[in-house]
Amino acid sequence: MTRRPVPLDALQARIGHRFSDPALALRALTHLSALDPTAGREESYQRLEFLGDRVLGLVVAAMLFEAFPTAHEGELSRRLAELVRAEACAEVAGEMDLGPALVLGSGEAHSGGRRKRAILADACEALIGAVFLDGGLAAADGLIRRYWQPRMAAPRRPLRDAKTALQEWVQGRGLPAPTYRQTGRAGPDHRPLFQVLAEVPEMTPAEGQGRSKREAEQAAAAAFLAREGVWTEQAE
């Protein structure tokens, strides 16, 4: 196994947990590529990642249940999926500065493994699993809230696609379902640009553009929601 590149003390300070069993932390940071071929896979972070994923889901679900007392199950599920997705875990790993602390094989290290989203996301979940084993649910809860509470309060992107959000918005007001009408197409055949109107009876339509009809429809729905003050940003 390669040597840990940074002292564990720095990471423990960042995450707010000091390990009683430092070996757990080291295992959470150890990629399979760093192990001797004769070593068992359990010496890598894979098993801890499995555990940490479940602990993260439990704690974030509880956080959402507390924070949004009137939200229905569908909204809570969408919020949960957004917060625990691999991209979110990789971003948190960046905030923890896990990259320099990872234990990688030389090949993985030279190929940019410390910056790979999948590795960072897995290591983040493994670290949560290690904290859970070392300090119990309270310790894991504290770590997760430390990094996920701000993310819960300010989602990085809309929780629904624009067309679904617009559909739900008009239904909640007893209005007919929105329709989408193509109003134009520009550009060459290999790179077209579509113009689409999102229309709701007795309301001003909104226009969107995109490289496909679907993309243009999503943009039109997002423009409609933004104009009505439902969304403050365009859908991705």
Please report the total strand number as a whole number: 3
H-E order: HHHHHHHHEEEH
Rg, rounded, reads 23 Å
Q: Residue-averaged pLDDT, rounded?
A: 87
Principal-axes geometry comes out as elongated
Helix/strand-derived category reads: mainly alpha
Question: What is the terminal separation in angstroms?
Answer: 42 Å
What is the number of helical segments per DSSP (H or I, 4+ residues)?
9
The helix content, as a percent range, equals 40-55%
- Our estimate of the beta-strand percent is 5-15%
Order of strands, main sheet, comes to 1-2-3
Low-confidence stretches: 1-5
Reported for the largest beta sheet, the result is: 3 strands, antiparallel
Give an overview of the whole structure:
With 236 residues, the protein is mainly α. The protein contains nine helices and three strands, in the order H-H-H-H-H-H-H-H-E-E-E-H. It has a three-stranded antiparallel β-sheet. The longest helix has 37 residues, at 117-153. It is elongated.
Give me a quick take on this structure.
The protein has helices at 8-15, 22-28, 46-67, 73-84, 86-96, 106-110, 117-153, 162-172, 213-227; strands at 179-186, 193-199, 206-210. It is mainly alpha-helical and 236 residues long. The chain has a three-stranded antiparallel beta sheet with strand order 1-2-3.
How are the elements arranged and paired?
Layout: H1 8-15, H2 22-28, H3 46-67, H4 73-84, H5 86-96, H6 106-110, H7 117-153, H8 162-172, E1 179-186, E2 193-199, E3 206-210, H9 213-227
